Amino acid sequence: MRKEELSIRVFKALGHPIRYKIVKFLYDGPKCVCKLNEDIEFSQANLSQHLKILKEAGILSSEKIGMNMHYSLANDEIKSIIDSVDEFVSSYDYNFK
Question: Which Gene3D superfamilies match (predicted)?
Answer without folding.
Answer: Winged helix-like DNA-binding domain superfamily/Winged helix DNA-binding domain
